[in-house]
Model the fold of this input.
Amino acid sequence: MKSNTKKAFILLAFFVISLLPLALIYDNLNARKHNYNSVVEEISNSYGMTKSLSTPLLAVPGVKSGDEVHSFFNALDSEVEIRLKPQVKSRGIYRAVVYQGDAEFKLKFKSDELKELQKREKRAEFDWDRAYLRLKVVSNTSLSVYDKNDKPLNFSMDYKYMNIPLTAFFADESISINEAFLLNKEITFHLSFKGSQDFSFTPTAKNEHITMYSTWEDPSFDGILPDSIEKKDGFSAQWSIRSPEYTDNLEATKSLEVRLLDSVTEYRLIERSIKYGILFIALTLALFFICDVGLQKRLHILQYFIIGATLVAFYMLLLSLSEQIGFVSAYLIAMLSVVVPTALYAYGILRDKKFALLVGGALCALYLALLGILKIENYSLLLGSVLLMIVLYFAMFLTRHLRT
Done:
């Protein structure tokens, strides 16, 4: 009894010491994540940064009290069709998602708002022949504007209004902007752009319908969430948004956002697996100790240390392999690299096939359960709780014959 108690305290001390190499592996993981983020930023800078667009506003220049003023109108109706064609760019062992995008706009403005403008700006004189469209553009890398006949349109970038990057252009040279506004005609044009990883869009029309298509299989949405999503050979998402209030403050207007990244990346999975590592090392050492005490399978304390060191090495192997072959393949290889040698080691120590199979089966069950917990993110707490209870029931079974 005293021998078992002494061994238990030694194992507890070893478990505490094993947290140090886990912490070092965690620091190494953070360094690799930093390298990954740096490479992604470099690729994004060379191809196109995160793109942010908005529904255009109608801008009318004028003069008030000798100063130039610009009045802005929100579109009455807007139909926007956005297509994102993703590509995966690699640099060394790191990868980043970039995309070629196209956004087609169909806008209608309400001529009755001319009266509202005259009420707001009673002393201003506006030049409707110089009316133009203005929209929010964050990152103008590789941006092109075309009319409905695919004729390139001139545009300019400035920060003069609304304190954000904006593009100003004429949407269709075959019909003047003021004519389209006064006669309630539809204005059609499209933008071609490049970006990386994220795309956001700020709706400003009073009645907005937005459709987005992409071949990316696993998008992540934020901000204004889609009304409907279909996932088949990529995804298509639709938004129907009503904005009854006039606004020209695009910074304060809520946007819809889509992120073309896996919801659970390799580094995030590894980070979570390391956090579970404390529990798994404790469970594995406890399994051997319970078998030692409950089944009278005597192990030397040094053999416990070797088994514990093997368990810690699993996470370093997982990190290094994941960068080369992906998380799941790396996890299975690292798991077999721990389970098979540990089971053979147990057989070599005790010459007991049943005990070796018990150890191998228990470790396989633990690591496969962890893989399930990591991949099914929404139910990870539930699965982890169930796994812990199963382990406790197993410990009860093995120790049922112990006597004081």
In short: The chain has two domains: 3-33+265-400, 48-261.
